[in-house]
Structure formats: C-alpha cells, structure tokens
Amino acid sequence: MRMVVLGTGYLGATHAACMADLGHEVLGIDVDPAKLAKLEAGEVPFFEPGLAEVLRRNTSSGRLRFSSSYKEAADFADVFFVAVATPQKQGEFGADLQFVDSVIATLAPLLDKPAVIFGKSTVPVGTAARLGQVARDLSPAGVAVEVAWNPEFLREGFAVQDTLHPDRLVLGVDEGGPGRAEAVAREIYADLLRAGTPFIVTDLATAELVKVSANAFLATKISFINAIAEVCEAAGADVTVLADAIGHDGRIGRRFLNAGLGFGGGCLPKDIRAFMARAGELGANQALTFLREVDSINMRRRTRMVEITREACGDSFIGARVSVLGTAFKPDSDDVRDSPALNVAGQIQLQGATVNVFDPQAMDNSRALFPTLNYATSAFEACEGADAVLVLTEWAEFRSIDPVALRSIVRSAVVIDGRNCLDASAWCAAGWAYRALGRPSRGLAESHTRASGPNGSRIPLPNLRIEDPGALSTL
User: Fold this and answer.
1) Segment 247-254 mean pLDDT
2) What is the mean pLDDT of residues 322-331?
3) CA 177 to chain centre
4) Is residue 173 pLDDT above 60, yes or no?
5) pTM of this prediction?
6) Terminal Cα-to-Cα distance of the chain (whole angstroms)
7) CA dihedral 325, 331, 332, 334 (to 10 degrees)
8) Would you say residue 170 has pLDDT above 80?
C-alpha cells in the first residue's frame, strides 16, 4: 500500500521505516528541515538499536522517502498515520495537543477523496472522536474521511522489534464512520496478522484508554516495588530478593519489579499525569487519585539517591567529587526527557559537588539540558578521583565494568547502585562499599563513619574515607 506518516520523531520515523520494511510505499512528512535531511541521507536523528539499518535499507530501495509538503502527502496516498508528540502542558498535568490538532487542520482541507487517518500518538480519551469531526468538517471529501486510532506500544531500545513483532495490535474505529478503517488496517498489517499477532478492534474511546492504562499499570508496578524498597531500607531487608520471591507468583510476575531510581522518559511520567487530568475533566477524578502517589513515590526515589550520596560524601557535597555513570532514562536510548539519572546529577551539582558524568549515547542530549556538568569521554575518565560512583542507568557497559580496575583510580571506593544492576558480591570482594536503594549496605564502612568520644559521645569525622579494611580496627 501507499501511506503517509505525519511526524518523523521517535515514533514516526520508526513506524515509517518499519512499514516500508513490510513492503509498503511510505512518505514521511515533517516540518523540521534538518531532521528531514538526516532521514533522507539514511541517518537516524536519535539512538535506537537496529533502526538505522532498517531506515537505510528502505530509503535505498525507494520504498521510503521524506518531504515537508502536505500537498504532496495528500496527492500521494489516502492512508495517513499521525505520529506527532503530545507533551505535557507547561505548568499543567494535561497533554498538549497542539501538534496533533495542527496536523489535522493542515491535512484535512487537502483531502478531496475518501481517506483513512490512523492516530498513533498517545492522546486523552475523546480526542479521536473530536479530530474525526474536525477532519470531516474541513475536508472536501466530508464524511468519506475516517479517523481511527491505532495506539503504539513501543519500548525505547526495542522499537523495531515492537513494530515488526508486536505482542498485540489495537484499533479503535468510529462506529458511525464509513467503516473502511478495519479493512485497511488488516491489509497494512497482513504479515503480522498471518504471524498470529492478536488484533483487537474496539471503539475509539477504548483504544485511546488502552495505551494510557497500560502505561499507568506499568508505572504503578514500578512505584509499588520502590515503595516496598523504602520499607526494606527501614527494616534492613533486601528488596531484590523480595522481588524475586513475589515474582514467582504467576499473578504478579517479575518484570517491572526492579527497585531503583524509578521511571522517566517521554511517556510514563507525562502519560499518567495527563490520564489524571483527563479523568478529572470527565468527572472521574477519584478513580485515579492513586496515580498521584505513584508519581510521588517515583520522584521521591531521586531525592533519596541524593541523600544516600551525600551521606557517602561525609554528609556534605562541598569539595566532593561524584561520578555519575548513565544519564539516559534507560539503557539502549539517548533519551534524557525527565531522566531520573540526569535529574540526580543536576541536584548533586547544585548542592556543591563536582559532578563528572558519562553515558554511551546520551552525552549530547545531556549537555544540551545540563551544560554545567562535567562530561567525560569514558566511564573510567568520569570516575577518576571520585568520592562516590553512582550507576544510574543500567547500560551493559556499566554492569560489566571491572570493579578491581576501577578501584585503582577513585579517591574513595564507594559505589551506589541506583538500578540494582551490579553484582554486589563482586564489588564488595574488590574492596568497595556498596549501597543500593532498598538493600542493606555492604562492604567497607561508609565514608561518614563516626567514632566514639568521651563518655560515649559520637564525634563526626568529616570527609573520612576508609579504603583499607585493616584500618577499621584502629577506629
């Protein structure tokens, strides 16, 4: 089929390239000339494993090309995918729909023949029905223009896999419309349906709610285990072992039960907030009040990571050197939108520490947001002379780093595992003091160790850093 993808950001570029890989002829539309130039040259303007190969393969074959002309788009096809951003409104919880609205307002007047517009963007429930009416009012084709909703379920780092081998396809259709959308969607995704991918056809409102409900559930599961991590810290328990134990329950499962720094990125945080806002507009605000606590728990993890780091630096960041490994919100991505790691790095620097950071892919994006941080060219460079090493994004490179070699270049062998992704036993055996969210401290005494004074009083020892196990006997 011929089709147009409107918007060539993370979602749109991935969808366009993968649809071409399924054999369709695809035209990508965007208003950003720099982005279009990169895509036309076969370059992905962001990091996503495997996407560059798919993009180059299909631009070279001629099945995929790009343009800034909506007129060309309207002449090219009668099937359109809307894949533009729906960010959080400035100063509000609700979603900003200006880009989605603009696409429909620009495209619809050019549609003079029957057309199907599939929404991919994550939008508040009720948006699809409203856009459908707008499109019909503006288009010369009138009621022959149909708006359906086909939400995306992409995981950054696995976007190509999730597009070409999805675990389900959801399509919301306008029951009062021309009725072409389902047949067109079945033709577009024919290869996936033959492979056995579940295909769920529903009304527009349900399709819109599927996406935000899935994100709200995942966010709740992550915040649940992080709330339990707070209790584990207070009780001296180990949240990782606890998660393993409850994860064996088939009703619960182990996925998304990794306690740590919490979630970030361009989807979960803004989607749960927009979900709450929309529920309030519909008069169902009490139904989602628990999501406020989900959001609160998630943000509290960042504050706790800063507190633990300050303790490790002698209860003050003044004069301390802190190494941060990882700034992307998750591994296999260069996305730093609402990144917990970058937020923590920024907070620590604002409180007086010298912060050296390294990320395998997100350095440019991090520097654009936090230009005052020190950016290293490698993990080892970032850790030179560090009083504390923080692992805040679970890149494979950091999980496999040699703790023995790293210990030789730091000032104080304290590692704080913000993602519970390191082998604690190996780091402790290499002489490191190991800290993690929701787990007991292990290894050498912490850098803020205090000694007994006269009459048993406790005397603070500022900036004391214990690197020799034998030195403990002298305190």
Assistant:
1) 97
2) 98
3) 35
4) yes
5) 0.89
6) 76
7) -60
8) yes
35 Cβ contact partners less than 8 Å away, ≥ 6 residues apart: 8, 9, 45
Does the annotation mark 267 as catalytic? yes
Q: Which of 343, 325, 341, 352 is nearest to 422 (CA)?
A: 325
Exactly one of 18, 267, 313, 421 is catalytic; which is it?
267
CB 390, CB 362: distance < 8 Å: no
Please name the residues in contact with 377: beta carbons below 8 A apart, sequence gap of 6 or more. Answer: 358
CA 90 from chain centre, in angstroms, equals 19
How far is it, in rounded angstroms, from Cα 89 to Cα 231? 34
CA–CA gap between residue 265 and residue 338 (Å, rounded) = 5
Q: Which two structure tokens, joined as six digits, stand for 318?
A: 């003044």
What is the number of residues in the chain? 475
- Of 281, 276, 292, which is closest to residue 126 (Cα–Cα)? 281
pLDDT in tens, 212-223: 999 999 999 999
- Inform me whether the pLDDT recorded for 475 exceeds 50: no
pLDDT tens string 7-52: 999 999 999 999 999 999 999 999 999 999 999 999 999 999 999 9
d(CA 260, CA 417): 8
Distance between CA atoms of 199 and 193, rounded to whole angstroms? 7
What is the chain's mean pLDDT, rounded? 93
Query: Nearest-CA neighbor of 272 among 329, 217, 227?
Result: 217
Q: CA dist 94 to 91, 123, 271, 445, Å?
A: 9, 10, 9, 46
What is the C-alpha to C-alpha distance for residues 385 and 445, in angstroms, rounded to an integer? 19
Partners of 200 in beta bridges: 170
* Contact residues for 299 (Cβ-Cβ < 8 A; gap 6+): 262
